[in-house]
Amino acid sequence: MAELMSSGLELTFAGMGIVFLFLTMLVYAINMMSGLIQRYLPEEPATSISIPVAPKNTATDKSYIAAITAAVHQYRSTH
C-alpha cells in the first residue's frame, strides 16, 4: 500500500511540475512575442475622433423615465 501511495505522489508531482514548466514557458513566450510586436509593429497614434453628441430633449427623456418607471412598477407588483 505504501508503494502505491509513493508512486501516486511521484506521478502527481511529476505532472504538476510538467504543467508548471509549460505554463512558465508559455508566459515567457507571450512576453517575447509582445516585445517583438511592440518593437517591429509600433502602434500608430490614435487620431482624435469627435463623436457628435445630440442635444438632450428633456420632454423625451421624461417620457422614457416615466415608461421605464411604470414597467418596473408593473413587474414588481406581479413578481
Number of strands: 0
What is the string of SSEs from the N terminus onward?
HH
How widely separated are the two ends? 59 Å
Number of helical segments with 4 or more residues: 2
Structural class: mainly alpha
Overall 3D shape: flat
Biggest beta sheet attributes: none
Please tell me the overall pLDDT: 88
Instruction: Estimate percent helicity.
Output: over 70%
Q: What is Rg?
A: 30 Å
Beta fraction of the residues?
under 5%
Low-confidence region ranges: none
Task: Explain briefly what this protein structure is.
With 79 residues, this protein is mostly helical. Helices cover 76% and strands 0% of the residues. The two termini are 59 Å apart.
Description:
This protein has two helices and no strands. The longest helix has 39 residues, at 2-40. The protein has helices at 2-40, 58-78. It has a domain at 1-42. By secondary structure, the chain is mostly helical.
Secondary structure elements and their pairing?
Elements: H1 2-40, H2 58-78
List descriptors:
flat, 79 residues, mainly alpha, 2 helices
